[in-house]
Every structure is written in structure tokens, then in C-alpha cells.
Specification:
The chain is an alpha+beta fold and 130 residues long. 40% of the residues lie in helices and 27% in strands.
Length: 130
């Protein structure tokens, strides 16, 4: 996707989605994958309502996603709040409680799709999920 600047020059804009999980929850790989999928789907649905062209551009260019780790619930909520304050799509996921953790446990946040620079300004210092 190209963004046209005032001077007539264009710069490439990368769109990305970030999934942020909690380090303090020791979720199984399958549970974490399901929670990340819930977040990505919710963020995409919200984007389809408020930023349809950006969602289409993101999908057309590979639907880049990154998964990073927040320290705990408070850290995750701060990240979510920053994203919302910056006007980005952000979805917070709470578990239904059918398997590993109690109902209502906040597990992950998705941000975007949005310009990579905007997302990185919020989550750029967080470690990648390993």
C-alpha cells in the first residue's frame, strides 16, 4: 500500500496486526492459539465496520501479524488503552471458562490492522512470543 505525501512523493505503508498475550498465564499452545484466533477475528470484524479499505489492503498484502507478550493483566490493559486512545482498532478477549482458566479471564488483545509504525509505537518494546 502506498501513501501519497503532500510533496507528491509516496512512501510504502506496511499494515500489521499485533496479538498481545500475557506472560503470567501459562496457557497450553492450543489454548493460546485459540485465544489469538478469537482476537484476530474480532479485530478483523471491527475493522470491516470502521476501516474497510485498510482491512482489504492488509489482507491483499499478506495480512501480517505479530505475537508479543505483555507481563500481566495490568500491562495488557495499559497496552489496550494506549491503542484505543490512539484511535486504533483494539479488541480484548476474555475466556469463556470451558477448559483451562476461569470464565472472564482476560487472555489476549489484538491491535489493528493498522500502520506498522503506529502499532510498533505501542508494542515495539515487547518480546516476541517464543
Amino acid at each position: 500500500m502506498l501513501l501519497t505525501l503532500r510533496e507528491g512523493m509516496a512512501r510504502e505503508v506496511q499494515l500489521t496486526m499485533a496479538i498481545i498475550t500475557r506472560a503470567d498465564l501459562k496457557l497450553s499452545k492450543g489454548k493460546l492459539a485459540a485465544q489469538a484466533a478469537h482476537a484476530a477475528v474480532d479485530a478483523a470484524f471491527t475493522s470491516s465496520k470502521v476501516a474497510a479499505k485498510q482491512l482489504a489492503d492488509w489482507r491483499a498484502n499478506g495480512a501480517r501479524k505479530i505475537v508479543v507478550v505483555a507481563r500481566n493483566l495490568e500491562h495488557l490493559k495499559r497496552i489496550y488503552g494506549e491503542a484505543r486512545a490512539d484511535g486504533l482498532v483494539a479488541e480484548m478477549i476474555s475466556d469463556a471458562g470451558h477448559t483451562e482458566i476461569p470464565a472472564g479471564t482476560v487472555t489476549v488483545v489484538a491491535i489493528g490492522p493498522a500502520e506498522r509504525d503506529e502499532v510498533d509505537a505501542i508494542i515495539g518494546s515487547l518480546p516476541l512470543l517464543s
